[in-house]
Specification:
Blueprint lengths: L6 E6 L23 H13 L4 E4 L14 H5 L12 H7 L5 E7 L5 H14 L4 E6 L4 H6 L8 H21 L6 E4 L4 E3 L9 E2 L4 E2 L14 E4 L4 H10 L2 E4 L4 H17 L8 E10 L3 H12 L4 H12 L22 H9 L7 H7 L6 E5 L1 H15 L3 E4 L6 H16 L12 H6 L10 H13 L2
Parallel strand pairs: 1-2, 1-13, 2-3, 3-4, 4-9, 9-10, 10-11, 11-12, 11-13
Antiparallel strand pairs: 5-6, 7-8
Helix pairs in contact: 1-3, 4-6, 6-7, 6-16, 7-8, 13-14
């Protein structure tokens, strides 16, 4: 068994609980999501459990594939209502010292000039504890509300995303020199204008000629996360991401993606061991195995099959209301680039999935489910890391915040006892805590190459 350090992140949304139907559970408090107190208490719980970060999943549209309508999503609170998570970060940072924060922003709908300033601001306010989950977005409903006729094709979204990253690297890494800000009261010079540079970017998708509006933050570039599992998404991740969030339901699917992305990263000149992977794990823990199993059955009694198919329909493009008892793979022959479908095929290439089987398999989302005592769950975590090469987990919740609180109180002490998770935090920024190599992008990251080119151009 491995004894490498296992990272722990909590994954949540700024809305009612992400597990379909579980908002109705009497212990669920996720309807308090509009209260800052709810979130600051959650942050303190995570820091007490020595979690590395909290990851806010997010989207900009609604799930309207199931029955061709958004009614089920709205009626059952399937990621709607959903508030902007970025506003929570300063408040949660104010009551913690070490916890990191990863927020989701779309390269399709956020302009790079504005997003660069937003993330620099958050990095300043948190003293370097911010990460960015880079998404390209995949909902037609979002595209239409942003004035498009439909979603941009997958390959073009990622091509656009590559240029987007080039723009933000230039803004964060090359626009302001490290010693540009003087704050010289005697000479009345706040910033030396000779050390602040236009980036002169003009590309296929973006024209950004000017300077970054924010002075360099502690990390300059936030820690870069990505969660795309499609073939094109994995290529994008291998180029840009420092850590990957995975929604793979089995060890087999997880191992495949980790191996594939690390091979791609190495071909691009990056150290593959420095690309971290965090599959999602949803734990249901009891003080005994029997208690955990009873808890699972209790949760399943609140689960909503319609809600599950609303989620799966949005992720796969398949309307399960019209599928009847048909088999999933019969509907997806033309959707080979969809990460969910690829994951299912790798789970069991020959299996024909019925609607009922899917409902049980995805009752709590596209993540691994572990049920048992603290010792049993710790055993599974340790074995999963050993088998797949993962670096840690995004800990999901069934009810909020109770599932994560139980994990903190019961499982974390067992993991710490085994030397698998940290007992105390290291000092420094989010990136320092992950790698121990300083606050900035590693030298083999493409953002650094773009920064070097930008700095040279500024002095020519």
């Amino acid at each position: 068994m491995t004894k490498k350090r296992i990272y722990l992140n909590a994954v949540t949304i700024n809305g009612p609980t992400a597990s379909p139907g579980l908002w109705a559970h009497p212990e669920d408090r996720s309807d308090e999501y509009t209260s800052l107190k709810y979130w600051t208490e959650f942050a303190k719980t995570l820091e007490r459990g020595r979690f590395d970060a909290v990851f806010f999943a997010d989207m900009l549209g609604v799930y309207d594939v199931y029955k061709g309508s958004l009614d089920t999503a709205v009626r059952q609170a399937i990621q709607v209502p959903l508030n902007d998570p970025s506003y929570l970060i300063p408040a949660m940072a104010a009551v913690t010292k070490h916890l990191g924060f990863a927020a989701t922003f779309s390269t399709t709908y956020e302009h790079p000039y504005a997003l660069a300033r937003k993330l620099s601001t958050l990095d300043h306010l948190t003293r370097g504890r911010v990460g960015w989950n880079i998404v390209t977005s995949n909902l037609d409903s979002a595209a239409k509300n942003y004035g498009l006729e439909g979603q941009i094709g997958l390959n073009e979204r990622y091509d656009r995303g590559d240029e987007y990253m080039e723009v933000v690297y230039k803004l964060w890494e090359a626009s302001w020199e490290e010693d540009a800000v003087l704050r010289d009261r005697e000479r009345r010079i706040y910033t030396d204008p000779a050390k602040v540079h236009d980036i002169h970017h003009k590309g296929r998708y973006f024209s950004v000629p000017g300077i970054h509006l924010s002075e360099p933050s502690p990390q300059r570039t936030p820690v870069l996360f990505q969660a795309g599992n499609s073939t094109r998404g994995r290529e994008f991740a291998a180029k840009h991401a420092e850590a990957i969030f995975l929604n793979t339901p089995t060890a087999q699917a997880t191992k495949f993606i980790i191996s594939d992305i690390r091979e791609r990263a190495e071909r691009q000149g990056r150290d593959p061991s420095k690309v971290l992977f965090f599959p999602k794990l949803t734990p249901i823990v009891g003080r005994t195995e029997q208690e955990a199993k009873e808890r699972l059955q209790e949760f399943l009694s609140f689960s909503s099959a319609e809600g599950i198919f609303t989620l799966l329909g949005a992720w796969s493009g398949i309307d399960f209301a019209s599928a009847g008892e048909g088999k999933l793979l019969e509907f997806v022959e033309k959707r080979d680039n969809r990460g969910l479908i690829e994951s299912l095929r790798r789970t069991d290439p020959n299996k024909r999935w019925s609607v009922d089987e899917l409902a049980n398999f995805f009752a709590f989302g596209t993540s691994s489910l572990t049920v048992g005592s603290p010792e049993q769950i710790a055993d599974e975590i340790e074995a999963f890391v050993e088998e797949t090469g993962a670096d840690g987990f995004n800990i999901g919740h069934v009810i909020q915040p109770g599932t994560v609180e139980s994990f903190v109180d019961l499982v974390v002490p067992e993991l710490q006892k085994r030397g698998l998770t940290q007992k105390e935090y290291a000092e420094g920024t989010f990136r320092d805590k992950l790698y121990g190599e300083g606050p900035h992008l590693r030298s083999d990251h493409p953002g650094q190459a773009i920064a070097r080119e930008g700095r040279l151009a500024a002095h020519e």
